Amino acid sequence: xxxxxxxxxxxxxxxxxxxxxxxxxxxxxxxxxxxxxxxxxxxxxxxxxxxxxxxxxxxxxxxxxxxxxxxxxxxxxxxxxxxxxxxxxxxxxxxxxxxxxxxxxxxxxxxxxxxxxxxxxxxxxxxxxxxxxxxxxxxxxxxxxxxxxxxxxxxxxxxxxxxxxxxxxxxxxxxxxxxxxxxxxxxxxxxxxxxxxxxxxxxxxxxxxxxxxxxxxxxxxxxxxxxxxxxxxxxxxxxxxxxxxxxxxxxxxxxxxxxxxxxxxxxxxxxxxxxxxxxxxxxxxxxxxxxxxxxxxxxx
Length: 300
Known about the structure:
The protein is an all-alpha fold and 300 residues long. 70% of the residues lie in helices and 2% in strands.
């Protein structure tokens, strides 16, 4: 068995175990029960976690694609396989530790999973050309040559890992806040910081890469946080003014964040449509003629 196939077998087994344990916990709803028992203002509404179904399905598409039609244009594909294998192990350990009551220690495996998926995202972002519908306003690799321009690679490799990492970004942030709460630290400033940082970080990624799948997950998360806090605040409307105020503040922060981020996304889409196809600098420079004169490359 060659090395690439061995990595493929390893990541398939790791993902199969992850899917199996996820199905068990979904049916028993023990993760949901454990999450409800922990105070965390960043936890989105229960319906938001339906995105896991999209993540599972799209990662399965990636696996099937790699077994049926392995990528031959991507360099060192084993690196991506390794990142996926580690992330599957980390996510599985996180689930098991979380439902077993080791909520503080469960941050370690989810953070490892986040790091692995971050590496995977950097790999696909660097090697697979995206489909852009927004303007790229700030990027240092405008002339970057992607090893793969295949739309199959985009939909079956780049999109799955983008969505997966984007959602684990949210999950690991929640896990970190659970850890902080378990240490007895409950400060609204921390939650406000994370809401602001979430909007800022995702805005930078959108402006720099134009990754629409990432933007969709970011918006989904913000709306989920706003929805959860909007519902929870009414529980304390007459019994606990402080808790009511906290939920109201997070509802406003997440709603405003979603509005600002959604507005930025719409602006970039309109800007790309209005600007039209970009013309590279090389194609716009004057070109010397036979007799030393110059002519524009776009001349007739």
